[in-house]
Write a structure and sequence with these properties.
Layout lengths: L2 E2 L6 E2 L6 H9 L7 H8 L3 H9 L13 H13 L5 H14 L10 H13 L8 H11 L8 H31 L4
Antiparallel strand pairs: 1-2
Helix pairs in contact: 4-5, 4-6, 5-8, 6-7, 6-8, 7-8
Length: 184
């Protein structure tokens, strides 16, 4: 089954665990990426991304290039924005940073959150209508998060569940609007 990475226009033949990390490693092999590259890979107009920077949802690019974390934040906002207000999405993302003080742990930035989410849905065994299934998938991808960070792990599990429901709601809303636009 082919598709795209969540929140992007980047095609993938089969979404599998670790695929988003490989994608990011390739994209950022030579450093940051430009606004035009972010625009192409997300399907967002450059002015929209610049507006998010201006409004403080995304930190400003350094020397006109975006980092892995900035790109991940843009992708997360893009994939959830139809279901959740952007300021709430940013609060959701920042919730992890508020809990994690030790940057040697597995939760280092927005890109890690994105990778956890992609790994969670890449599983293929997630039934979005079954909360136990969503929770089990979130638990599987967060096994490596240290137990000493139990509070952070509980919060991460909740965030991943929110992302799963909001991403599905966003996709359904877009699909419904596309069908609606074809009505005679």
């Amino acid at each position: 089954m082919s598709g795209t990475f969540p929140g992007t226009t980047v095609e993938v033949l089969h979404l599998q665990r670790g695929a988003s990390r490989v994608l990011f490693d390739g994209i950022f092999a030579t450093g940051g990426i430009t606004l035009s590259q972010v625009s192409v890979m997300t399907g967002l107009e450059p002015y929209m991304i610049q507006n998010w920077v201006k409004r403080g949802f995304v930190s400003p690019p350094q020397k006109r290039v975006y980092s892995r974390a900035q790109f991940a934040r843009i992708i997360i906002i893009n994939m959830l924005r139809e279901a959740i207000q952007i300021d709430r999405i940013c609060s959701l993302i920042e919730t992890i940073a508020d809990v994690i003080d030790d940057t040697s742990d597995h939760l280092k930035g927005d890109d890690d959150l994105y990778h956890f989410y992609v790994d969670m849905i890449a599983d293929g065994n997630v039934n979005i209508e079954d909360e136990a299934s969503v929770t089990a998938a979130a638990l599987r991808v967060t096994e490596e998060v240290a137990e000493r960070e139990a509070n952070a792990k509980r919060r991460l599990l909740k965030i991943l569940k929110i992302m799963a429901y909001a991403h599905t709601a966003s996709r359904l809303k877009i699909a419904a609007n596309e069908i609606f636009s074809t009505l005679d």
